[in-house]
Structure formats: structure tokens, C-alpha cells
Amino acid sequence: MFVDGVAQPVGTRAFEILELLIGAAGELVTKDQIMRAVWPKTIVVENNIQVHISTLRKLLGGKRGWIRTEAGRGYRLAPPADGPARATQVDAAAAPVPVRASAAQRTWPLIGREREAAELRSLVERELLVTLVGPGGVGKSHLALEVATAWACSRGVEACHVDLACVSGHGSLVATLLGALRGAKEPGAGDMGDVLREIGASEAVLVFDNGERCVDALAAVCETIAASNTGVSMIVTSREPLRVACERIYRVGPLAVPDAQAGGGDIEASSAVRMFVARARAMGTEFPADPKTLQAIANVCRRLDGLPLALELAAARAASLGVKGLVADLERSLLSLSGGLRTAPPRHRTLRASIEWSYVLLDEAERIVLRRLAAFPGIFTLEAACALATCDQLSRDAVLDCVVNLASKSLLVVHSAGLSKCYSLLESVRAYAFDKLEEAGEYVPFGERYAVSAEMDKPVRLAPRAASIAAATPVPASAAYV
């Protein structure tokens, strides 16, 4: 939005509220109207409105500025008390252009990602290409789209969402990109020259989603666009980096889960718990805030490693099973978790399907090493991984390369241990790898190899978790082995 002729950044939700107030032309806009317009399919607490109104009020003259509150009813726009001569001018005509239809609109609010959203926004302001890297179901797309939309609105430029989930090669990628740039529902005809002409010299935000399916082709396309137009901003979501010169990698980890010793207040403040409860409420489920229930919810969040997709699926299941039944169900089978949105893509309908999406992209050696690493119950070193997975068909060097690749493809969590690195598997990934280990008939021999090796049973001393952008998300240190 523009205030007194100066562009001011404002979030998507706040901007939508401002549009309502301007459209009402001084008439009252009730809280219910705001809820229905801004969060049409989501149940949110009233505090959400107050947060965005507070943001707008600071931009529009403070407490005695343009936004008036009618207690218990809603809000209206009205000239400040000191008269229209000094009133802050809100230029609705100069407001940012709408986000292009191809930029997918989310129905869920972004929960527990305030720090990540601020860091990503800062990166997008400075970098030409930012790649969000993380495991399936961690919320990369949601985060990228929220930040891209807010950034585009603040700059008055278009945001274009390019879904690459069904793209398999360079030609298919170019056609999909052309279709998105032209606002068409179908892929467009043309080549890379047509893409560059469509983009031109204008500023824009391009969000390439699910890049792991065509990572080589996407790397080439992004480099070509970067060389042609340095005014464009590109955000990529992928389970592995593009590895191009202009790329800045931003690693997205699961949401924070409460410690096993956490009390009620700390549990409720945990981002994973907040998301689980919000999803459950949106599905019509309410939980009592007693200590026993809160501990059960905390156990669910820890069991699911704070993975947003898993929390969403679990919240849907809790509507039928209750928290106690959900805990028992997860103990029986973690991978069978299902029940998400009907309109979700197949890879987001079950936890197994999300991991399968990554597994099919691995080569045979990487698949072998991944399933063998399931023998580790917690954190392990590179030396321990090589000792366990090496065999006649796979040399130590081959196993080392596979471990590096699996970490790069977000199937291993990387931890800092002094000057070294060590690794672990998310619980859902380990459960999937265990199934593959049993299918291959390797459960007994590699389970025994782990059990008899004293070198694989030494605890790892982890470095404190860093707060930096590249920080890995650790699992509890109590489950650490080498």
C-alpha cells in the first residue's frame, strides 16, 4: 500500500482487511464480515483481526488516525480528529496490483513460522534466487506463497505460481511456465525465448513449486532468467537444492515441539501444538485444556516430529478417534496416517505417499543405503553409517556418497557435533525405510550387524541448536548413537 505517496509493506491479510474498510466508504465493517471475507474456510481466533488492525493503524496515523474502533462491533475508516488537512492520504488507486491468478491462494493461516517468514522475506529482498529446501510435508510451499504474495503486494508487482509437480523435463517445464505467465490453465506453446519475452524487463516474483521433480531442467531455466533479468525474484521449493551459482538455500525444518518435561503453558506455546489445535478446531474438534490432554497432544506432536503435513492429517484423525485414540493409532502404524483435504494432491493425502514421492526419485544405491540406515534408533555418525551399510555390492565410498545425497535430498536430518556432522531420520522416514528393509529381507542381518557393533552404540554430543537460517532441526539427543 502507499501512504502519503510512500510504499509501505503490508501482509496479505492486513491488505484484505484494508480493502474491506476502503470499500465500506466509512461505514462499519463488523468482525464477522472480516472473518468471512479474509478467512472464509478457516476458524481463527479474534486476536488475528486485532493483530492486523494494529499493523494498519500504525501505518495510518496511530490511535487518532484513520482506523476507528467501535467496541464489540468492528471497525471503520474515518478522517483523523485533527481534520482532513493533515489526514494521512491512503492511495487506493496506487495500491499494489492483484496477485496473478496463478499464484495459489492458501486457506490455512501460517502458524508458527513468524521467524522463518521474516528471514525469507529478508532474503527475497536481497537475493535473485532463493530455494526453500526441506523434507516433504514440512510446509515449504505454504511459506513460499505467503512470503511471495506479501512481497509482491508491497512492491506492486505480480506473483506467479508455477506448480512443477507433474513436470518431468525441460520442454514440459518451459510450457508450464509459459502457461503460468500468460494466466492460462493449460501449458503454453513456445521456447525459452518466449519465456524471456513474457517476463521482459519488469519486476515479478516467480514461485517454482515442487522443483525436485525436474531439478536439472529448473536449474537451467533459473540461470537463464537470472542472466536476462536481474529485477525478477525467484523462489523455489524443492526437496533438494538446484546447485546453481545465483542460488541462496534456505532450509525449512519441522515446527518446534515441546520438551518431554514441558508444562501446560510451554506446551500451548509450542508451534507444533498450536498448529495441531488450530487444524482440529477448523474441523470442529475442541480439546479440554487439562494437563492430561495437553500432555497427550504434546506426545502426538513429538511422535510426528512437528511435521506440518503429519499434524494436519493427525488433526483430521483426532476428530474421529479423540486424542487418546489417535495416540494408540500412531503407535500401531505411523505411515497409515491419512484423512487430509479432499482437494489435496495425492502426495499429501497420506504420510506414506509423501515419503514415497521422495523415495521414487532416488537411485538404487541410495534406496539401499536409506533402508539400512533405519537400523539406527537415533543419531549416527558418517563412520557408523558407512560401517553399517557397506557390503560387497556397495563400497565405503559409494555409501558415503549416498549419505551425502540423502542429506541433500532432505531424507536425512543433519546435526552439528563440534566440527563434525552427524545424521538421523525423521520418525516417519525411518518407519518407511524399515518397511523397505523388511521387504528386501535385510531386517535380520542388518539389525544384527547394528546390535553386535560396539562402535555403533556410543552417544553423540551435539552442538547447541543454532538460530541461524541454515540450522538443522535435531531430534532428541537422548536417542543419539554412532
UniProtKB/TrEMBL annotation:
Q: Identify the residues that the record assigns to the OmpR/PhoB-type domain, covering every copy.
A: 1-79
**What is one Pfam family matched by this protein?**
HTH_77
Q: Does the keyword Cell cycle apply?
A: no
Q: What is this protein called?
A: Transcriptional regulator
Q: Which residues bind DNA?
A: 1-79
Q: Which GO terms describe its molecular function?
A: DNA binding
Keywords from the named record: DNA-binding
Recorded hits in PROSITE patterns, A to Z, give: OMPR_PHOB
Q: Name one GO biological process term.
A: phosphorelay signal transduction system
Q: Which InterPro entries match?
A: HTH_77 (IPR058852), OmpR/PhoB-type_DNA-bd (IPR001867), P-loop_NTPase (IPR027417), Sig_transdc_resp-reg_C-effctor (IPR016032), WH-like_DNA-bd_sf (IPR036388)
